[in-house]
Amino acid sequence: MPIDERRTYWLTVAGKRKETTVRDTSSTSSAGVPASDTAIEIVAALMPSLKTDLGELVRIPSVSVPGRIDDDLLRAHDMVARLFSEAGVEVGRLDLPGTAPAVIGQIPAPPGAPTVLLYSHYDVVPAGDATQWETPPFEPTEHGGAVYGRGTADTKSNVIAHVGALRAWEGRPPVGIKICIEGYEEIGSGALPSYPPTDPEVFRADALIIGDMGSITPGTPTLTTALRGMANVFVEVRTLKSGKHSGQYGGAAPDALLALVAAIASLHDEHGNVAVAGLRRNEWDGPAQSEAEFRQLGEVFAEMALIGTGGLASRIWSGPAITVIGIDVPSVDGAVNAVSPHARALLNVRVHPEQDSVEAQEAVMSHLRNVKPFGIELDVQPGPTGDGFAAVTTGPAYEAARVAWAQAWGAEVLLAGSGGSIPIVSALARALPDAEALLVGTTDGYANIHGPNERVLLDEFEKAVIAETKFFREFAARAATTGGAT
Ligand SMILES: [Zn+2]
């Protein structure tokens, strides 16, 4: 019997059927979890099977690599399609050029009910140096109330959380459902970001649950309201036909490496603030992360000062950042006494949530083209870009989410920004301007995503499933009181 707030329903736990009513406003509005909460009981009963499914999905090393769609990626796609189909979704497959297939699908909405799009991704980043892992990266290992493995937190537990909420409603939630689970998120989402505007029906919904985030710290239910954009920039310097003896030529010969280093140094001021004209920054108006928390999450050495000035949040959420993520220069080991003829670097620019990422990329490129260290021209080329996102937080979906997330965690909800980027989000926001986007999930600041020993906390995982289960009810209830889908 599905959870239907306007009727009583049956909960089967441990073989005993139990009748419970849900239309108890006090249980839906007040923060804090009432004594017996049906959604909590149902999800608790589902957790063993959800953990098994998570383990099975994590065991598939679905690493996304540009230009390749290999068997493991397709195996993960097929497993995700099966899980959603079994959970009641009419599943389809979206094949776009040069992009891993996305699992799409729907559960039609009950009359007058709103529709919710569930987004997530089944691809993962490479495990990196396996010797840094305490347990095998693709062997899900449970200990200390967590499951360890590549993709447990980013973001396979979020895929399973969507499945869990649908199972809790036995495939008949009080809202319509659309799903989009992609397989190329970690490498920029391929052709997917440009697709929603061409076929919005596949994604049309009143609210989007972007399952690829989580709690800023364990125990703090977090709705992420802003994502920075992203732009990559290649910088290359060629000065000589080949390396020249540093004794004979050093001091006069144009040194490609010196020029590159000088150019990179010009991107920040003496305090470490980005010093490129045209990159937007403003103070973050809202609760922010404390410096102590940031240092702890970032594992910053005690004697190290943070860089940049002004509010921490405006440095990591509502302002730019430029990181050198790759550099091709002679390595120290094996170095010879020679002036470098060539040097190259790849910069990753994080952009204010509301600034156009191409405009920001242009600003960085023109800065580098104008800097000409020692009169040396730089070859500056654009890499991929992705716009940021800033949520509207005043609509019925946000209202419903505040209640559902607060109840699931028994704590006040925090609205926070994020320095990271999810390319599809701004594309969906453009294609569906009236839809509210909720950036949520199972992960937390200590999950080590993209690093060794990534892990998801089972408690956060379970609460994320409960929150989503409750959200369907809260959102449907609000639509009912405001006279149907928004
Ligand atoms: Zn992710």
Q: If you had to describe this structure to a student in words, what would you say it looks like?
A:
The chain has 486 residues and is of the alpha/beta class. It folds into two domains: 3-227 and 388-482, Zn peptidases (Aminopeptidase, 3-Layer(aba) Sandwich); 229-281 and 319-386, Alpha-Beta Plaits (2-Layer Sandwich). The protein is built from twelve helices and 22 strands. It has helices at residues 25-29, 38-58, 71-86, 152-168, 246-249, 256-265, 291-298, 312-316, 357-371, 396-409, 423-431, 458-481; strands at residues 9-13, 16-20, 90-94, 102-107, 115-121, 141-143, 146-148, 176-182, 207-211, 214-215, 222-227, 229-238, 244-245, 321-328, 338-339, 342-351, 379-386, 389-390, 414-418, 436-440, 443-444, 455-457. The strands form seven sheets. Strands 3-4-8-5-9-20 form a six-stranded mixed sheet. A four-stranded antiparallel sheet has the order 14-16-12-17. Helix 2 crosses helix 4 (152-168). The longest helix is centred in the C-terminal third of the chain and has 24 residues, at 458-481. It is elongated, with a radius of gyration of 24 Å. Residues 1-35 have low confidence and may be disordered. Bound molecules: zinc ion.
